[in-house]
Specification:
The complex is a heterodimer. Chain A has 21 helices and no strands. In chain A, helix 4 runs antiparallel to helix 13, helix 15 packs parallel to helix 18 and helix 20 runs antiparallel to helix 21. Chain B contains 9 helices and 10 strands. Chain B starts with a strand and ends with a helix. Chain B is α/β, with parallel strands linked by helices. In chain B, helix 6 links the parallel strand 7 and strand 8. The chains are: A mainly alpha, B alpha/beta. Chains A and B meet through helix 12 and helix 16 of A and helix 2, helix 3 and helix 4 of B.
Chain lengths: 541, 237
């Protein structure tokens, strides 16, 4: 246990670059020393505020129905699904891709302490998700029901125990996948496909549950009660142990202990079982396909910019976890659009009948664009260069060409999904040619804008020092800032559309959105060519 | 010719890693750059290849300034870092072709050169494998091949012999000599003073960011060995 704590302490220090932050900001005066922590706290609170607002809004159904326990089910269900999706995409990377494995194995530390220290990083990240989804539901429940102090003590225990089961499940899946794919040549592609299918399965599952909600008939109160019960039923299925938590927190000590037990015991069991085979699993994960019959042939020659572009594409697809955490947005937005349009056809037909076609298409464009741009590859593309950054920096290629290649990768990923989206919309809504054009142009231009902005932000806040590529993505300031910037840009464009379409019609509003996005893009390109190039040169490699 | 004039580099934390460094390396010359760990060798090298900005002085390669015309400088320079950190998810041949594309190396020349150098370093059969499966020495060989296929005017190597087997180290030395015979410049840092002594016509010693000795090998070491001269200079500096 002592060795685990030593490893854990060092991991936290290393993961969050505590010494570097202390050194970087401790010596600086003014903005950097005070400003950066303030911005971080501000963004954290802002996201917390948004999460609180949405949970409070949905909780009104339970309050009106007098079924306050629904608030807890809501928080537990949302946190459970969110943690499952985010952990499954990270588990492999944290367990098997850390570069310090050889060093740790050479030390007199039991393998289970090493694996525990790796998993503890996953747990730590999940506590952040819990703060945003579970804690608001506890506070809201507390406001409406004024429970005793014991409730809060119990909630703290649930908070601590919550991520263990999900992390164990995801680690076990990742462990199994590692064994299955170890001898396959293109295992990364299989991992990517598996992860996408897993995401789709969870989303289809959740969506099917929502579509099976009770048919709301009868008077208002009956409707509210039916809705409240339906949501609770969905949440109970999304996070099955939630029932134990709610019963435990509302008085049943047996259920409470049962919950803690089913959370912690599988985790301990996993550590013991996997600890025995961890060395073998690690060496399996490092096994690569070797071509025993390699024959040197003449290769196709290409231009430097194209060469950088191809390299970027290869690197993006080479790591399943990085791919999922940087490029999943457009894929999932397309999936959601296709799935919803074909399964909720009636709803959309009704909406189509009541809404102006322009507004309807505008709404769909907004959904697809926001989902597609929330995560961009560019926001971490400089960080992902890591210790290999020297290769492009010493190459006789202008920084602007490197920038082009990186933005192009992000853009290329959106083209097929945008085409699929437009075909689906054309089949379902049969819009005119102008609206179809808007459905293609707006997501593409906004993607270019956000992609370029993400790259610029990454140049300002690069994280080149990492022992695991996923840390460059998930723990980089630039990714959070780009997500925030993407939300602001999308919000501005939506507001412009909503405000102007009643005055000038939706067609002109669409053109206005394109104009504003184009101006924004021009501005960001100018920033990249000036400030961006200077930053590129000054980033030490 | 490589000219370093008044190079001064101070890091953000205030540490001055290079202070008014003046060096020039002639065409066809092998030049050794020696000093302690942390003396400023890598910083100087990184400034020469355009990896680090510097606040004072200038560096020119065949008349091109690394500050004003970095692309022209980089086109004729090849750099081998002290640690071969390269894209591990590419195969060896993919990495070589990537570098060849970046440096506009024609199809026929590249194939011939890759074949020649890969055979020299006994790496041909591994070129189809992922770089992640390579040992440190194999990665180092790959980086060396990627530099040699460019036929650079200036070859800069930071501790090139670390991790290489004796045969590969011998091959590197041979290629360095051949390059110099064809008029290229070789500038390398090393802790292996015997190699520097045998291979180089001129040498510079750096300590705490300042050049403490600079000249022909005979001038710097006198009648002692380079190792003895280094230790003596180091003691008195």
């Amino acid at each position: 246990m002592r060795k685990f704590w030593i490893l854990f302490k060092v991991n936290v220090q290393n993961t969050f670059s505590l010494n570097l932050l202390k050194k970087k900001f401790g010596n600086k005066s003014g903005f950097l020393r005070i400003g950066m922590p303030l911005i971080t706290i501000f963004l954290g609170l802002l996201f917390l505020g948004i999460a609180f607002f949405y949970i409070a809004m949905y909780s009104q159904v339970f309050v009106m129905a007098g079924q306050y326990e629904g608030i807890l089910y809501l928080g537990l269900g949302l946190a459970g699904v969110m943690m499952l999706l985010t952990t499954i995409s990270k588990a492999h990377s944290y367990l098997f891709e850390s570069k310090d494995f050889d060093l740790l194995m050479s030390l007199p530390i039991p393998p289970r302490s090493i694996i525990a220290s790796k998993i503890s990083q996953l747990l730590l990240l999940n506590y952040f998700s819990l703060v945003y989804l579970f804690v608001p539901s506890i506070i809201l429940y507390g406001i409406y029901t004024t429970p005793s102090l014991l409730f809060y003590v119990g909630a703290l225990g649930v908070f601590i125990a919550f991520p263990f089961l999900i992390v164990t499940i995801c680690s076990a899946i990742s462990y199994g996948l590692n064994i299955l794919l170890s001898r396959i040549k293109r295992k990364n592609i299989f991992q990517v496909i598996f992860m996408i299918l897993f995401f789709i399965a969870v989303m289809v599952g959740s969506t099917s549950l929502s579509s099976s909600m009770a048919v709301l008939e009868g008077n208002d109160m009956d409707m509210i009660i039916a809705m409240s019960e339906s949501i609770q039923r969905i949440m109970k299925i999304l996070y099955y142990p939630g029932t134990l938590v709610v019963k435990g927190l509302t008085g049943s000590i047996v259920h409470y202990l049962l919950y803690v037990g089913i959370s912690i015991l599988p985790f301990l069991g996993f550590l013991v079982i996997v600890g025995r085979g961890f060395v073998k699993a690690q060496s399996r994960s490092k096994m690569t396909y070797t071509d025993k019959n390699f024959v040197l042939k003449e290769a196709e020659v290409t231009t430097p910019v194209k060469a950088v572009f191809i390299k970027e594409i290869k690197l993006l697809f080479s790591n399943a976890s990085v791919f999922l955490n940087t490029a999943i947005g457009p894929i999932m937005s397309t999936f959601m659009l296709v799935f919803y349009l074909f399964t909720q056809e009636e709803l959309f037909t009704q909406l189509g009948g009541t809404l102006d076609p322009g507004i309807m298409i505008g709404l769909l464009i907004a959904i697809v664009t926001v989902m597609g741009t929330m995560i961009t590859t560019t926001a971490s593309s400089i960080s992902l260069e890591g210790k290999q950054f020297w290769i492009v920096k010493v190459a006789p290629v202008a920084p602007t060409s490197i920038f082009k290649a990186k933005v192009l990768v992000n853009f290329i990923l959106v083209i097929p999904t945008t085409i699929i989206n437009s075909v689906v919309v054309a089949i379902v809504f049969k819009p005119n040619l102008f609206l179809m054009a808007m459905f293609i142009i707006i997501p593409l231009i906004v993607n270019l804008l956000i992609g370029s902005l993400g790259l610029f932000i990454n140049l300002l806040f690069p994280k080149l020092n990492w022992d695991n590529p996923l840390k460059a993505v998930k723990q980089g300031m630039s990714v959070v800032l780009t997500m925030f910037a993407s939300l602001i840009v999308s919000a501005v464009l939506v507001v412009v559309f909503v405000l102007t379409s009643p005055l000038v019609g939706s067609d002109v509003s669409f053109l206005l959105v394109i104009l504003i996005s184009g101006l924004g893009l021009t501005g960001v390109i100018w920033l990249l060519k000036t400030v961006g190039v200077k930053r590129y040169h000054s980033i030490p490699a | 010719m490589l000219q370093i004039k008044g190079l001064t580099k101070t890091y953000e934390n205030g540490k001055r890693a290079a202070s008014n460094i003046n060096l020039d390396i002639q065409d066809g010359e092998i030049f050794a750059f020696i000093g302690h760990n942390g003396a400023g060798k890598t910083t100087t090298i990184k400034c020469v290849v355009g990896l680090l900005n510097f606040e004072a002085g200038d560096i020119t390669i065949n008349g091109f300034s690394i500050k004003k015309d970095p692309i022209a400088c980089k086109k004729i320079t090849a750099y081998i870092p002290d640690n071969p950190d390269i894209y591990e998810s590419l195969t060896g041949i993919q990495y070589l072709n990537f570098i060849a594309d970046i440096y506009d190396i024609p199809k026929t020349t590249r194939h011939l050169d890759i074949e020649t150098y890969a055979n020299d370093f006994e790496l041909t059969k591994n070129l189809g494998d992922l770089i992640s499966s390579y040992s440190h020495g194999m990665k180092q060989k790959l980086v060396l091949i990627s530099a040699f296929i460019r036929h650079p005017k200036l070859l800069i190597l930071d501790e090139p012999f670390v991790g290489l087997d004796p045969k590969a180290a011998f091959t590197v030395k041979q290629i360095m000599k051949e390059m110099c015979d064809s008029g290229a410049m070789v500038f390398f840092s090393t802790h292996v003073l015997e190699v520097a002594e045998k291979l180089c016509s001129r040498v510079a010693m750096i300590q705490r960011g300042e050049i403490i000795a600079y000249g022909t090998m005979e001038d710097v070491k006198g009648d002692k060995s380079l190792e003895e001269a280094f230790l003596e200079l180091d003691k008195h500096a």
